[in-house]
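Incident log, support desk, overnight shift.

02:14 A customer reports that sequence design results differ from what the structure should imply. Their input is reproduced verbatim below. On-call engineer (initials T.W.) acknowledged and began investigating.
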């Protein structure tokens, strides 16, 4: 997922799911969503105000996220440390607290 985020830069959860799905995954968008929200809370991703059109008439649309160049720390994926409420970045060897 981190590699797909680095490639796309601006994306929705369905965008990432299309890139990383190999078939047979259970609830892939939910799992990707948890990771993306954690990265946003750690300051790696910015939630954009404009949404992408949804697939149904009553949909509010899909949230869009952006990985700014300053937050692209390298090829190794940041790791969510749920028990510590932090994200560990193996590229910088820093542990980033989650905000919000």
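02:41 Re-run completed on a clean worker. Output:
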């Amino acid at each position: 997922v981190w590699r797909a985020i680095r490639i796309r830069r601006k994306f929705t959860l369905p965008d990432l799911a299309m890139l990383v799905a190999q078939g047979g995954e259970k609830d892939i968008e939910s799992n990707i969503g948890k990771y993306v929200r954690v990265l946003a809370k750690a300051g790696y991703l910015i939630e954009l105000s404009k949404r992408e059109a949804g697939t149904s008439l009553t949909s509010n649309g899909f949230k869009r996220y952006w990985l700014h160049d300053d937050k692209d720390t390298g090829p190794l994926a940041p790791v969510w440390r749920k028990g510590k409420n932090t994200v560990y970045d193996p590229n910088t060897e820093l542990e980033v607290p989650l905000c919000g």
